[in-house]
Specification:
- There is one protein chain.
- The chain has a single domain, classed as Glucose Permease (Domain IIA) (Distorted Sandwich).
- The strands form 4 sheets. An 8-stranded antiparallel sheet has the order 10-5-7-8-13-3-2-15, with no helix packed on it. A 3-stranded antiparallel sheet has the order 4-11-9, with no helix packed on it.
- The longest helix has 19 residues.
- Helix content is 11%, strand content 30%.
- It is mainly beta.
Length: 205
């Protein structure tokens, strides 16, 4: 049997690389394909959580394997913005809970995960929007309107760069700590198809 030539080895390596690349290629998830919004699914219709003119990048979106793939908590967004960026309510509601322990710290280490400052707003349909890595500018039980300032981004919790971690839950009984936790998809106004996609840059109109 003749030995493989240099050219045949090169072609074989190209073929293997193509197979590997295809296997690792991004497969659209239910949020990206629209399957998440099928009839009967609870969906939060939301404004973008920043003031007009704010530019931001979606570091991670729903179902991202880095940290948004936990069952029941898949619909989450990490939005890169500078520290002290004002954060606005995405819909009318009532401030349901504020978690802001005074000695909390932050950094690029999972040990800080439980120290993340949070503001949670309950909406008229019972859903709850959660704003994480945020210092509150509101009080519990305070009514807020869509677009009202509720806080500013801060360095509290597990974070390797300044950002807002945003997500929505089906109800206050189905938050992250619940064994029945259930995050829900969000349609954002002011962006194509209402979707905030991983890796994309956006600006609030």
């Amino acid at each position: 049997m003749s030995k493989p030539t240099r050219a045949s080895k090169f072609l074989l390596n190209l073929l293997l690389l193509a197979i590997f690349t295809a296997a690792c290629a991004h497969r659209p998830n239910a949020y990206e394909t629209g399957e998440a919004f099928r009839e009967g699914t609870k969906v939060l219709s939301a404004a973008l959580p920043f003031k007009p003119g704010t530019a931001f990048r979606v570091r991670q979106g729903p179902f991202d394997e880095s940290s948004h793939s936990e069952p029941g908590a898949e619909y989450a967004w990490d939005l890169d913005v500078p520290l002290l960026t004002t954060v606005h309510a995405v819909a009318d509601g009532r401030v349901f809970h504020i978690f802001q322990p005074p000695n909390a710290m932050g950094g690029c280490d999972p040990k800080y995960a439980a120290q993340a400052w949070n503001v949670l707003v309950e909406h008229k349909d019972g859903s709850v929007s959660q704003y994480t890595h945020v210092e509150a500018r509101v009080k519990e039980n305070q009514a807020v309107a869509r677009g009202d300032v509720i806080g500013v981004t801060t360095w509290r919790g597990y974070m390797c760069r300044p950002h807002l971690h945003f997500m929505a839950w089906s109800s206050k009984d189905e938050l992250y700590a619940s064994p029945r936790r259930k995050s829900i998809p969000v349609r954002f106004t002011g962006v194509p198809d209402g979707l905030l996609l991983t890796g994309k840059l956006y600006q609030v109109p």
